[in-house]
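Let us practice reading a record.
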Amino acid sequence: MAPALFKLSLKELQDLFTQGDIGAFDIARSYLLRIGQVESKVNAYISLANKETVLAEANAIDTDLRQWRKTFPLMAMPLAVKDNICTQDLRTTCGSTMLEHFVPPYDATIVSRFKEQRYLLMGKTNLDEFGMGSSTEHSVFAPTRNPWNLDCIPGGSSGGSAAAVAADECVAALGTDTGGSIRQPAACCGVIGLKPTYGRVSRYGLVAFASSLDQIGPITKTVTDAAMLLNVLSPHDPRDSTSTKQAPPDYTKAVKKKDVKKLKFGVPKEFFSDGLDPEVERHVRAAIQELKNLGGDIREVSLPSTDWAIAAYYIIATAEASSNLARYDGVKFGHRAKARKDLLDMYQETRAEGFGSEVKRRIMLGTYALSSGYYDAYYGKAQSVRTLIARDFQSVFEEVDCLVTPVMPTAAFPLGEKLQDPLQMYLSDMYTISASLAGIPAMSLPCGFTQTGLPIGLQLMGRPFEESTILRAAYAYEQSTQWRKKRPPIR
């Protein structure tokens, strides 16, 4: 067995497996050994799959393939799933005391699709509690650490998934993105993170945070890997009323060309204002120049409603969180307070014990925004702003095919630096929130490193359901640079 199987991309690993050069047992053993080497340092997982179960499934795959040589794109591929996506018989905690012992009786649609492909589930990854955070520090299972610098955050809320991919603890992972929670940790950890168009991927079995914003997407080592995963994730799901019936294309066809000729790229001036770290701006500007060198038509554009996006997002998202999290009251499932005098006391004590400080903060903000006398002034106004933001994107996409921006105003910051200042933490998502409000596809890919060795991310945004366009642009840029070849120093 090659000891470095865990260093390969999904496409490279799948090619070796399909050709018969390696078996599923070889893959499983390599990744289990890697997890044993680094997981204690990174803390990417909340729950690891049982080793014997993983090896038994790998053996079964190898045995079956002796009889029939049919493989699926994800067969025997070691994947991780964010711990707010339901997995039957494996607990789904959402990083919270409230669901610490919850074991779902069913699989999310996307997990069922992975099982049909006979993938290898390595475990459930760490996250900010209920997906509320930008650093994966708001988890009751301790923070995840950035593989590039263990003293820094991995981003959030899908920090566990991004760190697991960067540290080679899985070949790819699923994350969820509400306001940037796939793209921002992908940028922090130097990997690929794709938020599909709202409705492109089924949300059935996803524990809801903000239902009009939540979207599941892949976190991978390469752009090609993201296209491969999206092919499996994107078909229509009748169990999800928001799932589009628009047939998906073959996204792997988009990752063939190494140029972006005839593509028009817009650079929104509002994304290069005060607050953007000069080192980050320099690398993003250099990436824009590289896209021009590859044949892209670069134009400055304007998204005038951008300055209102954070305010609108944190009203809409918290209002929907307040509604969605009302179900956690200690009655039907989840944590229940032991000391209680009556029903009302049980509700209060259960929620006081079960939720962390950030979740409580957002529930209170959302409840206030929805309260009588304030609904129109806050929630109604935020929805109006959301419409303006969507119209801005609609207008600008009449001129260009893609938008190019930073992912974060800074690179990953030290653990604990912003825990006492929630507003500063919220500003980490200032460049990703607009795409979530508009429901358009967006992705992050590496475009450089700081002088201290931390990754910097480039964001590409596209028209609704045109993931192929941003995948094409991302692939051309990825192939023209060497950033994807750098690996974290963790051993």
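A brief commentary: Residues 376-396 form the longest helix (21 residues).
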